[in-house]
Amino acid sequence: MLVNLKASNLTKQFQFKLKLFGKGRKKFNLCQNMNKTLNWLLVLVGIWLIIAPWVLNFSDNPGAMWNSIIFGVIVGVINLVGALGGGKKEKEEPTV
Domain spans of the chain? Predict the structure, then answer.
């Protein structure tokens, strides 16, 4: 069975999606706040990875210790930048 798509149908679908995006602006902002919360939680995970070799007594194993420290720094720094709002900021589109 072939689906017959007309240009007017595609235009209507596109306009409908734009309307949904416009109405979902608050939901989108809620997701951004949730992302910042998750970033802060992952900063804590990074700190835990850094101190874990001494807390869990595996600092005598240099491979495991350095692995934990290096990945803790990577996770912590990346998520700290995300939590503080680093990176490219999006411009808000004017509402019509």
Answer: 30-84
